[in-house]
Amino acid sequence: MCNGCVQKEHPDRGTTCLEDGSYLMNYRGCAACHQRDFVLIRNKIPEEDDGVEIITYDHVCKHCDHVIARHEYTFTVTDYYQEYTMLCLLCGNADDVTYALPNDPRLAAF
Q1: Considering the entire predicted model, what is its pTM?
Q2: DSSP string, the chain
Q3: Which Gene3D superfamilies does the protein's record reference (predicted)?
Q4: Residues 9-22 pLDDT 10s
């Protein structure tokens, strides 16, 4: 991972969890070759561990294959709640929880 390639390390992205893609607004440019272009996704590995879907991949410089960051996205369903998380030097940190059925019991109190 390369701190020199990003403007801010692990920015807070609220509830925006990316399963695929790159947060280019945070990309300063490649610290190795000094080019600023699109970022490639390499070594994408989808796996499932005990009901948790985990997707990991590398953000890589299009010009020199320098590894900018390692991206991890998780998805799980627990008691009708869909839980998402994202952890990445480039894309940031985020988590989100949504109810899978039409009437969310958390909102019934309002």
Answers
A1: 0.88
A2: --GGGBSSSS-B-TT---SS---GGGB---TTT----PEEEEEEEEEEETTEEEEEEEEEETTT--EEEEEEEEEEEETTEEEEEEEETTTEEEEEEEESSSS-GGGTT-
A3: Transcription activator, Churchill (2.60.40.4240)
A4: 999 999 999 999 99
**Rg from Cα positions in the chain:** 16
Domain with 27 in it: 3-101
Nearest to 91 by CA among 107, 70, 65: 70
- 30: domain CATH number is 2.60.40.4240
Taking only the tens place, the pLDDT of each residue in 55-88 is: 999 999 999 999 999 999 999 998 888 999 999 9
Residue 57, in any domain of the structure: yes
* Dihedral-angle region of residue 57 (phi above 0 means left; psi in -120 to 50 means alpha; beta otherwise): beta
